[in-house]
Design goal:
6 helices; alpha+beta; single chain; Immunoglobulin-like; disordered C terminus; disordered N terminus; 5-stranded mixed beta sheet; elongated
Amino acid sequence: MRSAFKGWMLAAGLALAGLAPAAAQPAATEGNAASAPAAVGTIGNSANTAERAPDQAPTAPQVAADGAPVLSAEPIIGQPTDRLMSIQPQVTKNGQRAMGFHNNILLPLIVIICLLVLVLLVWVVIRYRQAANPIPSKTSHNTIIEVVWTLAPVLILVAIAVPSIGLLSAQYKPAPAGAVTLKAIGNQWYWSYQYPDHGGVEITANMLKEKDEVAAGERFRTDADGPRLLATDNRVVLPVGVPIRLITTANDVIHSWAIPAFWIKLDAVPGRLNETSFTIEKPGVYFGQCSELCGARHAYMPIAVEAVPPAQFAAWIRSKGGSMPGAAQPSSAEIPQPGADNSASVAADANTADMMTGPTQNATAEPATSPQGATGNPGGTGDTGR
């Protein structure tokens, strides 16, 4: 009897011991889930990006695609919004200046002129209709009216021109020393980007398709990526509060790099480098499109920019294999014209030709000599040997 009681007690103890780890496992899992984002953020922002655990799954497709900090697009900010009747909120100095120019000068001026013309038309229709004015006036000149309608448009144009010229000059102001250089290259029909000051980091951005447009297992657009036709598989990552030196060019036809929230629209022309500068003042995700008709799929060349704090931008650059320039180093990386002798495409073509035919010998060949004298010249050395 005693031995049977001991057997029952031993079996019950083993059962309880086996249930204890199973009951403790969910709590441990919840604890790991709560601490995982903090660990990822700490490792991602550290100087050594190789510290990331190899078996740690990314938290979002954007991280898996290009290692950029995950940000979701905010309504109205940086993207078109249904029924919005104003310009997108601006996050650059030039954009805010342009928006103020539009709201405080252009729009009131347009409203006043339209109302004035409408009032004049109504007054003329009523005052000079046939019933009220059976005998029309034969007046042909009025000096005061002629002076007014000549000077008024001149003053209006001057009022518009002064702030317009200042804004235009500010849009093409050269970037200061220490700016981050971004080179945007248009292709049919996608964008590629280079960071010449940061170790030559390069990314390529294609439009994300919808779920029903891709094969099983392929990445598709989600709401976190951005609006339809504007989300890209790789976002351009730029720092907040740091001047950006934007350089555009193209490999095939003319494109145009445009972000409405930055007040930026810069043509990308093959064989030419265009440049402008801007500074993003607010973190977020901002969308744009190619704004120059460039072929059949022109509507499928979106632009997505993720603006992050400088520390996260530096971590992203290191995760892409690049390096941050020195604090006092100016943004002066040499960016050759497409097709120039020192451009990347020409160098690649030369290397291919060398592998196929051998290196080109830059030697002057001796001209072939002929024993036959010149017969077409009536005199001089050409008659020698006749």
